[in-house]
Amino acid sequence: MAVEGFFENKKEPVEAKVGDLTPQSKAVNVTAKVVSKTEIREIPMGRDGSPHKVSDALIGDETGVVYLTLWDDNIEKVNDGDTVRIENGYVTLFKGNIRLNIGKYGKLEPAQAPLEAEVNTENNVSSKTYEQERRPFRGGGRGFGGGGGYGGRDRRGGGGFGGDRRGGDRRGGSGGGYRPRY
After folding, report:
1. Angle CA(102)–CA(129)–CA(138) in degrees, nearest 5?
2. How confident is the model at residue 143, as a pLDDT?
3. CA-to-CA dists, residue 178 to 9, 61, 73, 170, 174, angstroms
4. Which of 11, 37, 54, 136 would give a disulfide with 27, using CB separation of 3.0 to 4.6 Å?
5. Is the pLDDT at 179 greater than 80, yes or no?
6. What fold does the segment set 14-110 form as a domain?
7. Structure confidence at residue 5 as a pLDDT band (50, 70, 90)
8. In the chain, where are the structural domains located?
9. What is the C-alpha separation between 175 and 152, in angstroms, rounded?
10. Which of 26-30, 107-111, 149-153 has the least mean pLDDT?
11. This prediction's pTM
């Protein structure tokens, strides 16, 4: 069952050259040649800490090169010298540097034709550092007992305004918002 208007706010992917990518680039289609690929690393992710494989491929066209982050099955789809097509990719900042990503709505596949142009390795868009926006702090985890907010046990036992924020007051409370002693 389709919901009318559900995808109306989604951007249609646009063709992009590597040199034109910015931190705001979303829903881009890129065709590029693989220059190199890093060693595969395993990192724990998710709530259970299950291991996932990750590798970065340096890909490029005549306008520049960028790092493409590859996860799990996508790593095997990319080899040095291949020409690949990324559909509906997006850009993120990792430590202030641009990374092209595929994501669950994107697609990575071999390009229909090899890239004939010489790859411009002089313009590495991933080497430029951008100011990374800080996400607003949302203090979670202190609303309903066990510290902070209005919830919790009682005034002396922590949770509400009893105790200080260091995990317990002098009377053994579990912490919470700061309440001066008069």
Report:
1. 70
2. 53
3. 44, 57, 49, 13, 12
4. 11
5. no
6. OB fold (Dihydrolipoamide Acetyltransferase, E2P) (2.40.50)
7. very low
8. 14-110, 141-182
9. 10
10. 149-153
11. 0.67
